[in-house]
Amino acid sequence: MQERRKLPRVYLAMYSRVFDRGTGRVLGYLADLNHIGAMIISDDSLPEGQHLHLRLDLPDPIFNQAHVDFEARVAWCKPDLDPSFQNIGFEFFDVTKEHKKLIDQIVETYEFKRNQPGYPTPPSVLK
Is residue 127 a part of any domain in this protein? Predict the structure, then answer.
């Protein structure tokens, strides 16, 4: 299948909770993020096309706020490698300059940097 992604996926080493603001229900945990969308890992599936009011927890005090809100639609939903979980892709609506700045800060702080020199740590170093 051809990749249709407009921006590269950025995997995060921080799994913040993502809520449905309408119901207060935890939908899952943030796995990746960019300016146009996000992916969460969830216990439940969601129907494609569903519009949601999302709230993303920001537990680190460096962000000067406890959460950020996004309007989004479910772009896709498919089983995780562990089939007891679902991976859910969201497309954001109306991303503001403030949202983009905050997303950049989250990515800079929590990006899972696989391409760094010395990654992965060799087992000999772990002894």
Answer: no
CB 40 within 8 A of CB 25: no
- Give the range of the structural domain holding residue 104, as residue numbers without chain letter: 17-112
Q: What is the pLDDT of residues 43-77, one digit of tens each?
A: 999 999 999 999 998 877 777 888 899 999 999 99
Q: Give backbone dihedrals phi and psi of 101, rounded to 5 degrees, phi first.
A: -65, -45
Q: Is the pLDDT of residue 105 over 70?
A: yes
**Paired strand residues for 19:** 26, 55
Please tell me the distance from the alpha carbon of residue 1 to that of residue 6, in angstroms, as a whole number.
15
Total residues found in the chain within this entry: 127
Of 56, 57, 93, 87, nearest in space to 73 by CA = 93
At 126, list the tokens: 């772990």
8 falls within a domain: no
Provide the number of structural domains found in the chain.
1
Q: For residue 118, is it within any domain?
A: no
